[in-house]
Amino acid sequence: MILVTAAGGTTGLAVTGALTARGVPVRALVGSDRARAALEAHGAQVVRGDLEGDLGAALDGVESVYAIWPNFDEGEVAGAPRLFRAARAAGVRRVVYHSVLRPGLRVMPHHAGKAAAEEQLDAVGVAWRVLQPCAYADNLDAAVREAVETGQLRSAWGLSRPQSFVDVRDVAECAAVLLTEEGLDSGTFEVAGPEPLTAADLAERVTAVSGRDVVAVDAPASPDRGTYAGRCLATMFDWYRDHGFAGSPRVATALLGRPPRSYTDHLADVLGTVGGAAEGVPPASS
Ligand SMILES: NC(=O)c1ccc[n+]([C@@H]2O[C@H](COP(=O)([O-])OP(=O)(O)OC[C@H]3O[C@@H](n4cnc5c(N)ncnc54)[C@H](OP(=O)(O)O)[C@@H]3O)[C@@H](O)[C@H]2O)c1
Fold it and tell me: Which end of the chain is less enclosed by CB atoms within 10 A, N or C?
């Protein structure tokens, strides 16, 4: 039995699906019943519990934990190591920690929190593996759908710096490999998409896949820097704007046994294309 934490989020749902598709029994820890139906449809055993509370019952009989902490949550720096210790105390054989590409970029508080949590893995004394994903292509899906309507792809990270967006399904497949295959302990594995793309590159691909003319526009975000989540978002967009967020696809290719999905392939699924043009979308203006 594998326990997946924060299982009702984007990542948790995808990892749960990847594991159950392999026939692996999954216990999905959720904070509410919001995603219960989707997780049960994957065949997972759904349990409610607070990541900040006593996880003894959730960990009972568990062989491995896929440790996801909710996004932009200040509790991660103490809470993730507490989860690792609770897993060890419960006799769990292995923890796989869902980190982020380049957690050493500590100017972003959520990266710093993950770097600090990774540091604790050796000290806890449980077998461990770490997955470090780049930004998900899926983060942009709502903006892409809007762009197909308006002709403008709004970018909060400017127009000139690239990111190696990765499809969350590939992230989940890599996680499933780390949770089910031998010979990977004490390893840290980056998961980046196949090519670094600027917002302008993304707009070109949306145009090609949807058949609708789309241009990228600079749309700076202004998160509330007075909150932890707001500071994470603000420093993240600042970093992406100045430096981008690119990585190598080599490790993900090795884990998957194939290259990670291209952004064009991701778009084709999001926009439901038939023969190269999105269903129901008017053709590009001539
Ligand atoms: N998005 C990306 O591009 C990206 C890239 C790399 C790494 N990551 C990392 O991936 C991780 C997961 O992100 P995500 O966007 O998939 O997750 P998320 O949307 O933040 O979802 C996490 C889930 O955790 C549950 N939750 C919140 N507080 C809880 C608590 N105290 N106890 C139990 N459950 C609780 C929430 O659902 P319920 O309460 O309804 O169950 C929520 O659905 C984050 O650490 C993020 O930094 C994300």
Answer: C
